[in-house]
Amino acid sequence: xxxxxxxxxxxxxxxxxxxxxxxxxxxxxxxxxxxxxxxxxxxxxxxxxxxxxxxxxxxxxxxxxxxxxxxxxxxxxxxxxxxxxxxxxxxxxxxxxxxxxxxxxxxxxxxxxxxxxxxxxxxxxxxxxxxxxxxxxxxxxxxxxxxxxxxxxxxxxxxxxxxxxxxxxxxxxxxxxxxxxxxxxxxxxxxxxxxxxxxxxxxxxxxxxxxxxxxxxxxxxxxxxxxxxxxxxxxxxxxxxxxxxxxxxxxxxxxxxxxxxxxxxxxxxxxxxxxxxxxxxxxxxxxxxxxxxxxxxxxxxxxxxxxxxxxxxxxxxxxxxxxxxxxxxxxxxxxxxxxxxxxxxxxxxxxxxxxxxxxxxxxxxxxxxxxxxxxxxxxxxxxxxxxxxxxxxxxxxxxxxxxxxxxxxxxxxxxxxxxxxxxxxxxxxxxxxxxxxxxxxxxxxxxxxxxxxxxxxxxxxxxxxxxxxxxxxxxxxxxxxxxxxxxxxxxxxxxxxxxxxxxxxxxxxxxxxxxxxxxxxxxxxxxxxxxxxxxxxxxxxxxxxxxxxxxxxxxxxxxxxxxxxxxxxxxxxxxxxxxxxxxxxxxxxxxxxxxxxxxxxxxxxxxxxxxxxxxxxxxxxxxxxxxxxxxxxxxxxxxxxxxxxxxxxxxxxxxxxxxxxxxxxxxxxxxxxxxxxxxxxxxxxxxxxxxxxxxxxxxxxxxxxxxxxxxxxxxxxxxxxxxxxxxxxxxxxxxxxxxxxxxxxxxxxxxxxxxxxxxxxxxxxxxxxxxxxxxxxxxxxxxxxxxxxxxxxxxxxxxxxxxxxxxxxxxxxxxxxxxxxxxxxxxxxxxxxxxxxxxxxxxxxxxxxxxxxxxxxxxxxxxxxx
Length: 866
Prior knowledge:
This protein is mostly helical. The longest helix has 23 residues, at 362-384. The N and C termini lie far apart (60 Å).
């Protein structure tokens, strides 16, 4: 765990102020005093009328009042109502909950102590004669609800028992099971923080072993094939932040990224380049880049067995093979372009070591090896066949592809806040589903996509699109669920349309709709948006009272009572800290005394605010995290490094380096694991800060290298962007960066990196260096498509007076656009009118670089307006 004093001495001197009462201490003091008996509360600092100054991330000094903002009279009356609800029995509030705990028969609702959880787990672990499925059901219903409050930061005794339970269940499933619980075991292990890919790998081996040795009905073979697919979907989403909470899918890299990763592994070898140097481990690392190489190695056996069984139409028929197409596509690249490396997968099977807590039995491995050896030629043939059925697609898969493409395009348009783009995508999609029964069926099978669109329509105030989406759901007999209503409220909250939130809420209440935690969380956040702090905490207290009453009368199901959660508190606390810090103290104290434990998100919200107040606030938060057993997460790390560097942005480089080293040293003493993704975020945070020194950036890189974390293309891109911010601009430092980090040619690094390199060369007066990279990427079938990059290249060539090469660039861009449009269909680019409106085409038109006889329609319509 982090030490309580996570601020270096230089940062402390920056933070030291005369704040009247630290915010973090204000928020957590009563919680601490009730949690740690005998620990005196820290004395408040004396008030002062002086104004204090703080440094912000832009490097500017701003004045702030010394004390918290005055509390409004309306909030005082609201808090009176809040206290009246809490003290429903007209008794003095002692700061302790008056809730009556549910009886033992209500499994999953009674707060349980650590000792009780440990006892229940020990009992469950000892019940080895029960079927695995029954043990998992017992765990899910009776134990897991009590572990949710801990997240993945389980107390040591509980953590050890959880590992013992999972490992025992895995061993029993492997030895005696029929693979019915393999997927459930792998997913449960990940939810409990056991993120090793070894568990899903051996579960895949178990499913394949049942395929090979069991007599299975056609329906059970279909069940096993689906479980095998979903197991690899789960693996592809593990340890990937954007995939958390998303539906299962094969979240794999695209072909360009995959090829670049394989070539990087090939060229990193000291010996001569040949495909035998691309090992099976490198193949799996390129396939699942979120895992470190040593962890990815554990997936080799399970992946090889899976590929062999997917290639066997007796077990996985052709129509089911199409569902594995993204995985098979990347595997075919490895098998066809690096055949010797692929063959070593077969020679080295099994890769599993005996050191694993759950090894796959050797006798079962031998049985699988025999099957895999016989199936290998068929697998190689399947992957090399350009006309294989799995490459062709089907009506159902085409509909799924259309939905996933729409989802991707909508997400991109929303991230760019591109309202016309969203409108065009929706109009196209609405028209397409009207003429496709298959697409309508696919929409009915994925109603969450409609919820997502409704959220976007509400967030961007697209009333017509919102109305037609709701009407389409009615025509397709897709019911409006609580998730749909929650999506509406979330969208309206983001665009600050509280009137519609109130109207919908009133309708839901008048219709007696049973509400849940997510929609209540949105409602409470809307109260804070409107500045109604008192109404928010009063609503929370009312919820708690209804829950207590329902527990007491044993009518939870009938009453539809909702138990307040830390997610609800977190939705309120950030806004309350801005509006009325004393109210945050009341709310957190109330939550604590009602058994609602502050989680890492709560601490992070207050930690960010604490940096503006003083070193005691920051130290107090870190101390609370340590004493409550709350481990830091990625957000904690980013907050620490951003805020501490911001405080030292005007100090000497040595002070900035000390701040960076302090954060890394503190995290090294915790159980927090730093991944390459986090190092990249840290590098971005430091490199983008105003006045951040080179020494601070080098300090991050030094820590990265000390941990043997490889500098990836994204990190190099960050460093290139930083170099471009300097005056005078020069390409020499950028070229040195590429050489230093082993990315001297276009076979290394990803597309984004090289498009940034081309742009940087053009901006620094090296148009022919940029043009050479442009041609290299085109020769490697990785044409440049980024118009901002191409815009700078074209400007540079025009400035040089090189019309021939400028015209060649324009013609190449047009050709690549037309090829892409022909491959994907014209509908793919209907929302890309912005592509033709880009300044690139204006430069081409002004310099007579366009051949108007061969001009695409989209450009022809717009060119006359230039």
